[in-house]
Amino acid sequence: PSSAPPRVDADTLVLGIETSCDDTGAAVVTGDGRVLGEALASQVEIHERWGGVVPNLARDAHERAIDAVVAEALRRAGIDDPSRLSAVAVTVGPGLTMCLRVGVVAAQELSAKHALPIVPVHHMEAHALVARLAAGTTRCRFPFLALLVSGGHNQARSILSTLLILARGIGNYVILGSTLDDALGEAYDKTARLLGLNVGGGGGPALEALAREGDDASYKFPVPLRRRKDCDFSYAGLKTAVRLAIERDLGVGGEEDAATRRTRANIAASFQRVAVTHLTERTSRAVEWANDLLDDGETLSCVVVAGGVASNAVVRERLSEVASRCALPLVTPPPRWCVDNGVMVAWAGVERLALGLSEAPCTEAQVAASPSSANRRDVPTFPRWPLGERDDRATGHVKSAKTARIAAPLT
Ligand code: KG4
Ligand code: ZN
C-alpha cells in the first residue's frame, strides 16, 4: 500500500473486474458512487448440462469473454482511453484459481499499458460493500450487520458463501456464523435439480418461481440447527429431507400432470420457507451478538442482505421483518448487484483506493515475462481467503491456515 491515500472523488474512475466463478463482469464506478457502465457475460448455459461449474470450461469461457466485457463496460462509461482510469480493481479470491487468474492477468495488462494502480478485492467483501453503493455510505455506515448468501459452487468458497458478519470497517470483519456444509445458493440449486427444473437461468430463480404456486406449509421439513444457539448454518439435512420427500411423493421421471406439478410446487415452497426461516433465526441472533461486540456509544446502522440469493423476493421480505423487529433498516442491493457482477468489485476498489490500499502499476516487462521467470509479477490469487476473524462464540468449521492456504488479510 502506498503511504498517502489518493484523493477519491467524483473524478475518480475505477474499473472493476470479476471472474472468480461463472460470471465475467466488468464495470466503471466513480469515486462518489456513480455507476458509469457495466457489462456481464454469464456462463449458465455452459455449465447447465454438467450440473455444476466445471473449472476449466469456466476458465475458457472467461478467456473468450473478458476482453469484450471490459471493452463494453468502458464503452458504456464513455471511456475511449483507459488511461483516464484511476485504478483497476480485480477479484483475487476466494474462488476458482484458474478463473481468478483470467481477471488478474487482464487487470495486470491494463495496469501495465496505462500505468494504473491495481486494487486487489475480496469477492465476499465486494458483495457486502456494494450495499454502501446502493444505499449510500451514510445510511449504510460502519458498523453494520451483513448476511451474505451466495452459491459456493466450488470448494474454495463453500464455507464463505453463507455468512453472517459484523462489518466494522473496510477489511475489518468479525465472522459471527458460516455454513457447516452447503451454501444456501447451492441448496437452492440442488433442490431445483431434484425437482427436475430447467436450471438454465440458475436454479434459485427457477425454484423461487415454482414455489410461488405452492403451499409453503404443506411439508413440515425440520428447521436446521434449532438446538444450537449460535449463528452457524446447515443446509445438508434439509436437502436430504427434500430428496426423501421427492422420492416418496414424486418418484423418478414420469409425466407431469396437474397433481404432480402441485406436489412439486408444494415441496419447493416448503423448502424455501424452512431455508429462509433458518436464515431469519440466525440473523436475529447475530444482531444480538453484534450488539454485544460494539463499543459504548456505537450502534449498528442497518442489516445488509447481499449475495446471489439476496435477489430472492421471499428472502428480502422475511429479512425485512427481522430487521424491523430489531428496529434497524434493511439494505438490499438491487438484484443485479446481488449476483456476481463487476460493479461490486469496482466499488470495493473505490473504497480500498480511498484508504491507499492499492498496488503500484505493473510494468510491461513484468507482464511480458514468461510465467516461470523471476521477472514476472506474481499473480497473487487467494483461492481460500477468510474475510476476517471468527467470533469466539462461533463454532463453524474452519480448516487450519496451512491446509486452507489462507492468505494474510490485505489490510
Ligand atoms: O453470489 P452469486 O451470484 O455467486 C456466488 O458467489 O456464488 O450467487 C449465486 C447463487 C446461485 O446458487 C443461485 O442459484 C442463487 O445465487 N440465486 C438465487 C436467486 N438468484 C440467484 N437463489 C434463490 N433465489 C433467487 N432468486
Ligand atoms: Zn458471489
Summary tags:
about 400 residues; 13 helices; Nucleotidyltransferase, domain 5; 11 strands; about 15% strand; 5-stranded mixed β-sheet; alpha/beta; binds 5'-O-[(R)-(carboxyoxy)(hydroxy)phosphoryl]adenosine; 2 domains; binds zinc ion; 6-stranded mixed β-sheet
Produce a short descriptive summary.
With 411 residues, this protein is an alpha/beta fold. The protein has 13 helices and eleven strands.
Mean pLDDT: 91
Inertia-based shape: globular
Query: Structural class from helices and strands?
Result: alpha/beta
Question: Which small molecules are bound?
Answer: 5'-O-[(R)-(carboxyoxy)(hydroxy)phosphoryl]adenosine, zinc ion
- What's the CATH H-level homologous superfamily of the largest domain? ATPase, nucleotide binding domain
- In the sheet with the most strands, the strands line up as 10-9-6-7-8-11
Q: What is the fold named in CATH at topology level of the largest domain?
A: Nucleotidyltransferase, domain 5
Number of domains: 2
Beta content: 15-25%
**The CATH top-level class label of the largest domain:** Alpha Beta
The helix/strand series, from N terminus to C terminus, equals EEEHHEHEHEEEHHHHEHEHHHEH
Total of DSSP H or I helical runs spanning 4+ residues: 13
Low-confidence parts, pLDDT < 50 over ≥5 residues? 398-411
| Proper CATH architecture of the largest domain | 2-Layer Sandwich
How far apart the termini lie comes to 9 Å
Report the sheet with the most strands, covering strand number, pairing sense and barrel closure: 6 strands, mixed
Number of strands: 11
Radius of gyration, taken over Cα atoms and rounded to an integer in Å: 21 Å
Q: What is the percent of helical residues?
A: 40-55%
Catalytic activity: L-threonylcarbamoyladenylate + adenosine(37) in tRNA = N(6)-L-threonylcarbamoyladenosine(37) in tRNA + AMP + H(+)
GO biological process, one term: tRNA threonylcarbamoyladenosine modification
EC number: 2.3.1.234
Region (Disordered): 368-403
